[in-house]
Predict the structure.
Amino acid sequence: MKKILVACLAAVFMLVACSKEKAAEAKNAESPENKEKKEMIQPVKEEKEMSIYDFTVKDRKGNDVPMANFKGKVLLIVNTATGCGFTPQYEGLEKLWGEYHAKGLEILDFPCDQFGHQAPGTDDEIHQFCQAKFNTSFDNFKKIEVNGENAEPLYKYLKSQKSFAGFTGEKAEFMAGFIAKQDPDYKNNAEIKWNFTKFLVNRDGVVVERFESTVEPAELADKINSLL
């Protein structure tokens, strides 16, 4: 009988000891230090990769235009100027619009005054000039900056997708020398070099190619047609 009583008391002591140990473990697990360690080993959620459709731009009247409005379209995005040696490219852009707009092409025209102060007018003045001089059918967006800390977020994204593509054509040598005087490292960065730099975006929102100022719109016809 005595042996049984001793065994029972030993069992009780063991249960009490186990309970205290478990309570201590639980308390320790909830300590700030352990909480921090637990959070550190949690898998980090990956941030969603930005899409061109996540941006919003403004039309020439200042109204918001979600880029998502252009889902399923082929986009030709161009920074333009009305007093530039490349301004006659508006004629070529209008031809592309006339030939391919019904098939799904959108031309997004963003006037920019950062290069030689060659787009000095108001948004409405620029629009009127384009219609009167080149009979453009596509509209102009609000004037923006494409380089620097005040660059339009859409353009920051475009530059992150496609860097400098190289000058080509008859004016390539002139432009290379001209830009090198302003930025000796121009070949190795994605900054917009001059007016009428063009970005081509496919129906899925992928920036497929960048074309520098020296590329005439007519040279893009086959590429655009292949995406439609």
Observations:
- The mean pLDDT is 87.
- Strands lie at 56-58, 64-66, 74-80, 105-111, 198-201, 207-211.
